[in-house]
Automatic annotation (TrEMBL):
Catalysed reactions listed for this entry: Transfers a segment of a (1->4)-alpha-D-glucan chain to a primary hydroxy group in a similar glucan chain
Name by which UniProt lists this protein: 1,4-alpha-glucan-branching enzyme
One Pfam family from the record: CBM_48
Enzyme class, first EC level, given as a word: transferase
Active site residues per record: D337, E392
Alphabetical UniProt keywords: Glycogen biosynthesis, Glycosyltransferase, Hydrolase, Transferase
Organism, scientific name: Exidia glandulosa HHB12029
């Protein structure tokens, strides 16, 4: 392993200089782990293919080989439908590392275990107790709630003619990710769990037409409780059977690729469900197999188990899990959930981050968790140079999105979690004329130098019951009564639709190097998201997306949808997300006007609730003739066509607001316009 190149680390951030020893020490520990993996396993490539060794694998001649790490077990047997659940049959042998192995020869040239039949591993532990578990590396589990909430493990080995084979190459890595965060199960319009095939047929075309080039799929890894939104994972290698078969998911991803869409998995390596019968908890009867034992291995708020990232076999399991979804399903990258919990011993519980660097490099940092993330990102970028990895981190950890070779954690992007919080707080607590433009602009532009971020006005968090979407905060109950185009435009709906568009464009253009939207929010979905649970009578009514309302030509939701589409397609043409950060030339608190330039475009926002401005002078750095390329006030977006799309704006070579030229524009109340050079 080469030594850390310390030069680029502190570039642009003098606060990092005193923490250089901690950064170098962290890198040295990473380098030691990487060296150990190279020495003992041959490197990342072999180490991360653990799923070809562990679990159940079928050789070409039909022999089934099963391996499981369970050092505390004294005996182990594979049981299932295939052997009448005989606990004395098919005994396994343990090696010196605590790995049990069994080889089952074929019968008449066919695997001895039938495809899709049920299996378990049966073990005895010290003291003579017999325990039975779902194999840790199992690739398929199913749940029959009419019988029991406990999952059944399935031997997944479909006939060759039923296996889906990818037809399309991965699309190039997007330099300007426009991310559509989606959940397959809630994507159906009726009250049930949506299916992979339905998502492929009905939702992918919508995402493509809206101009999103990336999908972030939630709740794919199998999870015990539907209402957990996928964040209580029981079987890490099993794609959720709620939505269909593994091959249906492969088809979904392949069809997305045919549309040029990158597909990310919302991966949960921050914790695991504490279920024993169908999870990893107490797998071999001990508290400490995959997890830390005792309190260190438990998350107080999530009521779940925490991985021991400092153990060789746990690293094999987790790194192989990432590789499996890349290879087996064709995912193009990951959004890592709960990264803050992984990087700090306090897991972010009851902790507010002040930005002091002692919080990022002090004794509250969980070095094992940080180094696991460094190894994961280093492995992924080494094996897949076009990988896309995103961190969900609320702490603002420096170097999170710098390469590991620079002492960074290696992510490509971080989620800008302060932005949606700001908008919700504003809409809850302030009237429009009290908005502090300085604070809004600061929050949108406050990101670490040369570390990319994903900006979003709202994600699934804001859509959940107990919170409200931006549309709901803006329009509330009038969404049920006044969204018909045949009814008069009320002040509440007028304001709500205008600000819904302005907030999104402001975040999209100013907030980061990528943009994210949660499905349905683009058109102001009128209801919250609430999964079936005891508290709502196990109803699916709010666990769906009402596509009918955006498709109805008489409802105003279509206007918001059209603006979202236009916004994305305008970005695709001018590429502001992949351009350097914007230069903000004006944030006028009295006029509520914001002006900034990015990617050669001039963005003008009038957030004033009542005032329109004629001949409003704005600064423009590059001289020439400008024309409108996007206006939130177009009729097709539910506006009033007060901004002439054919107007030409000529610059005057006199300095204004720190820019070398100025021009004058008409900006009606609560509108935004985007100007591009036309000469």
């Amino acid at each position: 392993m080469s030594k850390l190149d310390t030069k680029p680390i502190t570039d642009g951030d003098p606060w990092l200089e005193p923490n250089l020893p901690a950064i170098v020490a962290r890198y040295d520990q990473f380098a030691k782990w990487k060296g150990d993996i190279l020495a003992s396993e041959g490197g990342y490539d072999a180490f991360s293919k653990g799923y070809t060794k562990f679990g159940l694998n079928v050789a070409q001649d039909g022999t089934i080989v099963y391996r499981e790490w369970a050092p505390n077990a004294q005996t182990a047997n594979l049981i299932g439908d295939f052997n009448g659940w005989d606990r004395g049959a098919h005994a396994m042998k343990k090696d010196q590392f605590g790995v049990w192995e069994l080889s089952i020869p074929p019968v008449n040239g066919q695997p001895a275990i039938p495809h899709d039949s049920k299996i378990k591993i049966s073990m005895t532990i010290p003291g003579g107790e017999r325990i039975e578990r779902i194999p840790a590396w199992i690739k398929r589990v199913t749940q029959d709630l009419s019988v029991s909430p406990v999952y059944d493990a399935r031997f997944w080995n479909p006939p060759a003619e039923q296996v889906y084979h990818r037809k399309h190459p991965r699309p190039p890595k997007p330099q300007n990710p426009r991310i559509y965060e989606a959940h397959v199960g809630i994507s159906a319009p009726d009250s049930r769990v949506g299916q992979y095939k339905e998502f492929t047929q009905n939702i992918l075309p919508r995402i493509r037409d809206l101009g999103y080039n990336t999908i972030q799929l939630m709740a794919i890894q199998e999870h015990a409780y539907y209402a957990s939104f996928g964040y209580q994972v029981t079987s890490f290698f099993a794609a959720s059977s709620r939505y269909g078969s593994p091959d249906d998911l492969k088809e979904l991803i392949d069809v997305a690729h045919s549309m040029g869409i990158t597909v990310l998995l919302d991966v949960v390596h921050s914790h695991a469900c504490k279920n024993v019968l169908d999870g990893l908890n107490l797998f071999d009867g001990t508290d400490h197999l995959y997890f830390h034992e005792g309190a260190k291995g438990r998350h107080e708020l999530w009521d779940s188990r925490l991985f021991n990232y400092g153990h060789h076999e746990v690293l094999r399991f987790l790194l192989s899990n990432l590789r499996f979804y890349m290879e087996e399903y064709g995912f193009d990258g990951f959004r890592f959930d709960g990264v803050t919990s992984m990087m700090y011993l306090h897991h972010g519980i009851g902790t507010g981050f002040s930005g002091g660097y002692h919080e990022y490099f002090g004794d509250q940092v969980d070095l094992e968790g940080v180094i696991y993330l460094m190894l994961a990102n280093d492995m992924l970028h080494e094996l897949y140079p076009d990988i896309l990895s995103i961190a969900e981190d609320v702490s603002g950890m420096p170097l999170l999105c710098r390469p590991v070779s620079e002492g960074g954690v290696g992510f490509d992007y971080r989620l800008s979690m302060a932005i949606p919080d700001m908008w919700i707080k504003l809409l809850k607590e302030k009237s429009d004329d009290e908005w502090d433009l300085g604070n809004i602009i600061f929050t949108l532009t406050n990101r670490r130098w040369q570390e990319k971020s994903v900006a979003y006005a709202e994600s699934h968090d804001q859509a959940l019951v107990g919170d409200k979407t931006l549309a709901f905060w803006l329009m509330d109950k009038e969404m049920y009564t006044n969204m018909s185009d045949l009814s008069p435009m009320t002040p509440v709906i007028d304001r709500g639709m205008a600000l819904h568009k302005l907030i999104r464009l402001l975040v999209h253009a100013l907030g980061g190097e990528a943009y994210l939207n949660f499905e349905g929010n683009e058109f102001g979905h009128p209801e919250w998201l609430d999964f079936p649970r005891e508290g709502n009578g196990n109803s699916f009514h709010y666990a769906r997306r009402q596509w009918n309302i955006v498709d109805d030509p008489l409802l105003r939701y279509r206007f918001l949808n059209e603006f979202d589409k236009a916004m994305n397609h305008t970005e695709d043409k001018f590429k502001w997300l992949s351009s350097p950060p914007a230069y903000v030339s004006l944030k006028h608190e009295g006029d509520k006007v914001v002006v900034f330039e990015r990617a050669g475009l001039v963005f003008v926002f009038n957030l004033h609730p009542t005032q329109s401005f004629a001949d409003y002078r704005i600064g423009v750095d590059v001289p020439g003739k400008y024309k409108v390329v996007l206006s939130s006030d177009e009729k097709r977006f539910g506006g009033y066509d007060r901004i002439a799309l054919d107007a030409e704006y000529f610059t005057t070579p006199l300095e204004w607001n720190g820019r070398r030229n100025w021009t004058q524009v008409y900006i009606p109340t609560r509108t935004a316009m985007v100007l591009a050079k036309a000469d």
